[in-house]
Amino acid sequence: MASRPIVIDIDSASGGLEFIYPIIEQGMPTDETSITHPTNAISVVFIPTAEMLSHSKGLVASSLKYNIPFDHTQMDILVNAQLWETKEITDRNKKLLSMLGKAIDGVVIYENDMFYVVKNNGLKIEYSFEAEGLKRLGLLWKVIRNGLLESGSILIWDEPDISIHPEHFSLISDVLYMLANDGVQIFVSTHDYNFAKYMEIRKESGVNLMFHSLTKSSKTIMVESSDSFGNLQSNDIISSLDNLMDEAITGVNPTVVK
After folding, report:
1. I want to staple 52 with a disulfide (CB 3.0 to 4.6 A). Which of 56, 78, 116, 188 is the partner?
2. Residue 53 belongs to what domain range?
């Protein structure tokens, strides 16, 4: 059985966001007065587990022209990465780009419908040839460079720890807290103990951090929340580590039926 995901919610203490939903009937608004237009559009970036930048060549155009039934969340991050870079770079973004750029040893560029990593020594590498973990860091570099994670925006990142070398967990937690301190609300899911603990021990003042454990019961999704990772009663991540320690001490494999 797959372990339950832990969802980490990181929010600036300065305030929340209000979502307004229009009334929709058969795909169309029931009337114009039923829609309330927010004064400021909310930028939402969803980073899926699937790596998409390596498959950019012609994918968006083909999907639009032939109405290919492709996962829209995966297509959305590709479109966001293809947007133009901002003319000006804020001081905060300069620092974030420098931190991530050091990890990937270069910058990410979009050229002729393909993505590349230009290394600091000038070597230009097709994105598909880059290491999987560095691809994920490179994607985060690109959406920041495109100005999509500014104050008031939302980042939803599905398992950022996938394929990432554990030495980069510290970097990711620092980047996420810098974004949160600047007013970006962040939701990340994880099955990794080390990543979750990094998020807990690196918690900064002025930032609200909550852990949510999701449990499926019949047709209901139960949610348990705590500001402490260890206080979650339904926590398969910690339970699996406890089982591992028990087996290391006793030498008994509990999954083997005798």
Report:
1. 78
2. 6-250
